[in-house]
């Protein structure tokens, strides 16, 4: 018998004019079942080799066990390759207090420290490209203007300063473009998404026009100080702020008064709006939890995110709006799916102290954390992801293994492996302690309910527990 | 002066103004004090909040759409990749060669665009009027409506051609029902229109009355009248019709008239239902027939609205029309549904009367316990065949029961980890740091060992509970048929468990139930069924001898030739007997031993959250994903990731323009699915390929 490949070669090797006759001759000589060469010969050498395949299920038995094994292997490999820590950026001489993303450049990042120093980093080279003494005392907050040409900083010295993004040339002095002297300390700053308007908070929430030296509008609602204010990135006229009286206040820039506020059991440190869902925001709270609210229904958060064992200091959404990352006083970073009550990932390092500020890079790939011990750390958002360009086959393999993991995620062994995380002993024991405390509280509540008049002790859900009131 | 200008003062006007002045003087009430600043601010805030929340709610559809989307590609607004036109890339390009100049002069003459605007003004205008996507959607919509219309027309034509009276009657009935539903809604929403409808109904009722139907004057009624002397059923049917007549002749008050018409129609059909007789197969055990005997049926029928007549009572009548036969079939379906309902209820009751439960051990091992002592006396010897049938019937029922029982047994298992309003932790955090593949493997072994430990304790526990003597067991082996009284002594320990209430029933019902159940199981030998079942399971668990002899090896083979005995002996493999059954010493218990502990470590022990039935979950697992089983395109489609991001692209927050666009899409049609998303890319790729080829050539 002549194999089809040889047959194909014969066909292509002969000259064209007597191809037909030759074809017939072969046919006469050897009784072959002749196939159409189009089915197995590629058009150019750049095409993929055609491999005919029989998909008859009886030829490929045990599909579930085989896929299960593949899924198990994929999960194991994922855990083995989970190395999220990429780099540490050092250079600050005091704890890093705040960070800012560049809206136009992925490789640029700004950080401000507790001694008033500000550094601009190049992330691809992992080095500091510019250092300037921005304030006396802490740099409390900073934000890059939407165009990326300048940035604003606020500090403990009661000033708002605007700086050029460009490094000053040789001989030029490092000077702010603008300086506004305020009456009190500003604690946070945020810029409008499209217009030359920014907002600061301190003793009240002020909205500033870039061209003026006095605020165009100030909001105060019986609160003495605010810790954080953020513009809504989608509905750009909306604002939300965290106040020290344990409340979160909503504003509309176009209105004369604030909109609404919700008072919680403990103080919220920061909040972040979901960049893909206009009405959702998440706040990081002192009571170790994060709360995701729908701004239209403030009477209870629609998800309570627990897992941290100390106050949560900062939160930032992934640009896809599917997940967010939180930084905590317990020296860990956790990544939460936006609608899950528990984290999918926890990052920690021996040397990382209290994490003060956190940012999710705007290409959805990296996480930056700034901590007390003067370092900024760069993490992968997906711990086991391979960085860089992937070949199409690699991509297909990754997708397939991802799908398999998802398919078999409920199987106990796979679940156990994929969910295992190492924790430092202190945090582990604290988690345990918290669990015991919670269980005890629950038991007590149950007992009290059992021994009191039916109906006198209504069941309060976890979501309702943390909200004190909504003030209209 | 102004007054003079406006109008001449008439005495009446003067009086009027005087009066007004007087009123003003008398009226001494002051103006209301303005609201305090606090209150006004509160009102302002509320108004502002309402406004903004309404504004923000516009995003709802977009957010939901994104949540449901099979795949999201970020950044959201991407410019189409691929080759661009030269006019876009090169800014200051000029025609230099004579050929180019000639071409451009031609273009200019024909008013074709040269540089930046690639499209002619008219083309642009048409594009602005409707984008390609929109046009596609619109066209698809139009096509769909056209097709639907044609379908509808064809259907209507077909329907019109059908001559069957029954078909039209059913159709009419359906229409009537729909109409009633609409009417009910209308009563709520638009009472005025409902009143109109009511009037129409009244008119139709009058027409019906005037038609002199239901007067017992028809052909059928006359035949019935002859029968009525001897036949109880016929008499009843006639009475029924008279009642309907009475109803019709009364003036209607409530809008439930249509309903009564329905009933009248069914009443008309009832007599022929009475007419036919079904041969009684088994007088002793009506339950085996799958139909119920008279008594419980009557009770049921009293309770339920449409009266169902016992079959045995009726005799074949003379006035059997074809049309009536048709209707009878319809009646039968009703009856079947009734029967089904009855059977279900009976199943529920059984759970109580039989005290049978399944114990769900923490490890999932199922112990099915059945207390049969109540029915000892009723055990009757029945022929083998009957027994077999009864057995299967019984087992199926029993499985049904077990299925009923399982969910409540499962729930507490899921309980301890979960708290109300909380989801289980996603991560299992521990002090163990996993560094290598071996560590990972150790992790998985970890659970399997814990699982087996659980299992062993479980077995010990069950052994403790068994109190039966082994002597009875020996008896059992010798005899093929055992008198249940010998095996099932009264001392048999019955494990009592709190039974979750399966159905809420009245106290009065219980008596009835007992009667019904006694009646239903009258000819049923439950005990022997159970024993048979148990023996069957034991048989199934016993290892079978495997015969590996191949004919023709080492000797002659062919048609009708048996391999030699020595060879058969040599290749017969005996399997070691399995460990003794757990229910070996428990005569009234069957412990299912299907679960394999070595596999159990890999199996899912409780239904994961979004699934409601095990079948759904199993279905997701069963369908393979990989390339081995699916074509490449299918694999690509199945394994497409939910979120796709581009390397090094900045993802901007969603913009207001997206909202407007998405809203428009939501109005016109659903979002584009994956296929069409991939489509253009593929096309582009193939184009590139072709270009490549051309270059080579």
TrEMBL record, chain A:
GO biological process: female gamete generation; maturation of SSU-rRNA from tricistronic rRNA transcript (SSU-rRNA, 5.8S rRNA, LSU-rRNA); protein ubiquitination
Cellular component aspect of the GO annotation: Cul4-RING E3 ubiquitin ligase complex; small-subunit processome
WD repeats: from-to residues: 89-131, 305-346, 348-389
Alphabetic keyword roster: Nucleus, Repeat, Ribonucleoprotein, Ribosome biogenesis, rRNA processing, Ubl conjugation pathway, WD repeat
SUPFAM superfamilies with a match to the protein in the record: WD40 repeat-like
PROSITE patterns: WD_REPEATS_1 (PS00678), WD_REPEATS_2 (PS50082), WD_REPEATS_REGION (PS50294)
Name the record gives this protein: DDB1- and CUL4-associated factor 13
Originating gene: DCAF13
UniProtKB/TrEMBL annotation, chain B:
Comp. bias intervals (Polar residues): 665-679
Name of the protein in its database record: UTP14A small subunit processome component
UniProt biased composition (Basic and acidic residues): 337-352
Compositional bias ranges of the Basic residues kind: 681-697
Record family assignment: Belongs to the UTP14 family.
Acidic residues composition bias: residue spans: 319-336
An annotated GO cellular component: small-subunit processome
Pfam family, one: Utp14
GO biological process: rRNA processing
Ranges for region Disordered: 293-363, 403-425, 662-697
Family matches, as InterPro entries: SSU_processome_Utp14
Localisation: Nucleus, Nucleolus
Annotated source species: Oncorhynchus kisutch
Superkingdom of origin: Eukaryota
Keywords: Nucleus, Phosphoprotein
